[in-house]
Design goal:
The protein is mainly α. Helices cover about 75% and strands about 0% of the residues. The longest helix has about 40 residues. Keywords: Membrane, Transmembrane, Transmembrane helix.
């Protein structure tokens, strides 16, 4: 039964490792890049109303 616990721990730790790797390698830089481009877009002073 202790082997099952060790395997379960390694499985959960491995999934957590790959999730953190994905988040730090792709998702967070992508989110920061989108935010930076949103801040760099010129703002319209007068919004055109849809007619």
């Amino acid at each position: 039964m202790s082997i099952f616990g060790i395997v379960l721990f390694l499985l959960i730790a491995g999934m957590a490792f790959w999730l953190i790797t994905f988040l730090l390698g792709f998702a967070v830089p992508f989110w920061i890049t989108l935010g930076a481009f949103e801040q760099l877009k010129p703002k319209r002073v007068f919004e055109e109303e849809d007619k």
